[in-house]
Design goal:
This protein has 347 residues and is mainly β. It has helices at 2-16, 19-39, 51-54, and strands at residues 64-70, 74-81, 85-87, 91-100, 108-115, 121-127, 144-152, 161-171, 176-177, 180-181, 193-200, 211-217, 221-229, 238-247, 255-262, 268-274, 291-299, 309-317, 326-327, 333-334, 337-342.
Length: 347
């Protein structure tokens, strides 16, 4: 565009300036515009100069920045989903915003995978951009491309759970995966997680635990029941503690649940400290009114001294160590629930 603009401006100035100065001004204009033309780096294709106009996609407040490089050709700018929550058996639509860093030498296949508990795959979809209508070999440097991929979620997915959205780029028709890199050069493997979605059952779930309680930690998490298997801890064996939580208000933190088996002197003999569902469904994802069944397995020691024994249950912020407390029936505050006394048995 610079060359034709230079000619037009030159002709215009010839017509509008006095005879004695018009050629001086024309020469100066041509010189300046030519300098701009040659100041563009030789390795940059001219189409890259138009990229800022395409960044209108990023003005969408629903776009979450990503910033992952796939080789030296493709850069994943951001993503968005049609919903923050998806039920098993439904379909999740994922929008990917790509930037061509240089002209791709071949056509790539993009795979979007959703993984749930224990990183088990619960959904996957493979597609060339635009369903094959926007092959990457046609992209030009600086081009911004938006692509939508629909991922069906398995009706057998274990829910509720945090779902990790993972993106893999393959050469050709899934011939070989490209290693992803963070902008700082860190290697991310071939299937990095770009974000999360909340995976839930198709309908609301209500629980009726064996043991009932009514204790609200902080202002948002209520412990309304529990059960243990076996009924008493067995020496040298695993002991399962099932906790039943309900979100009764907004929860903004990912809290850690602690289950401590202690003796009469408060010494910890066995314990678990982990986020709900072994970290697969953090408390910040819970919605008001939702009930969550949370299991923890303690390894009981082969010998125990200092009876009677108790189980202490509570929650804390792992970043600060601060525990959530609740109001007891006598008007005091406590940061844990005490269950027991317990009588360990021989296996």
């Amino acid at each position: 565009m610079i060359a034709p603009v230079t000619v037009l401006l030159g002709v215009g100035w010839i017509e509008w300036t006095p005879q004695r100065v018009r050629w001086v001004l024309c020469a100066a204009t041509v010189g300046v515009l030519s300098l701009l033309l040659f100041s563009v780096p030789a390795g940059v294709e001219r189409s890259a100069l138009l990229a800022p106009a395409d960044l209108a996609y990023l003005a969408d407040e629903d776009i979450t920045p990503v910033g992952i490089e796939y080789g030296d050709e493709l850069y994943l700018v951001g993503y968005a989903t049609d919903e923050a929550t998806v039920a098993r058996g439904q379909t999740l639509t994922v929008r990917l915003i790509w930037l061509a860093r240089k002209r791709p030498a071949e056509d790539y296949t993009v795979s979007v995978e959703v993984t749930g508990r224990q990183r088990m795959q619960v959904g996957i979809a493979d597609s060339m951009p635009g369903g094959g209508r926007l092959p990457t070999s046609n992209w030009i440097p600086g081009q911004i491309t938006q692509d939508e991929i629909m991922v069906p979620i398995s009706p057998l997915a274990n829910t509720p759970s945090k779902g990790d959205i993972r993106v893999t780029v393959y050469r050709g028709a899934k011939e070989s995966a490209i290693e992803a890199m963070a902008p700082n050069g860190a290697r991310l493997g071939t299937s990095p997680s770009i974000g999360t979605v909340r995976l839930v059952p198709p309908s609301d779930v209500r629980y009726e635990p064996a043991g009932s309680t009514d204790i609200t930690f902080g202002s948002g998490i209520r412990l309304f029941g529990f059960s243990v298997t076996p009924a008493q801890p067995e020496l040298g064996s695993p002991w399962t503690v099932d906790l039943y939580w309900e979100a009764v208000g907004p929860i903004h933190q990912d809290y850690t649940v602690f289950c401590h088996l202690v003796n009469a002197y408060g010494r910890i003999l066995a314990q678990t400290d982990e986020q709900p569902l072994q970290g697969d469904y953090p408390s910040s994802m819970w919605r008001e009114g939702e009930q969550v069944h949370d299991s923890h397995v303690l390894q009981v020691p082969e010998t125990m001294q200092g009876e009677p024994f108790y189980l202490l249950v509570g929650l804390y912020n792992a970043e600060t160590g601060e525990r959530l407390d609740y109001a007891t029936t006598d008007g005091m505050k406590s940061d844990h629930v005490t269950l027991g006394p317990l009588l360990p048995t021989e296996p």
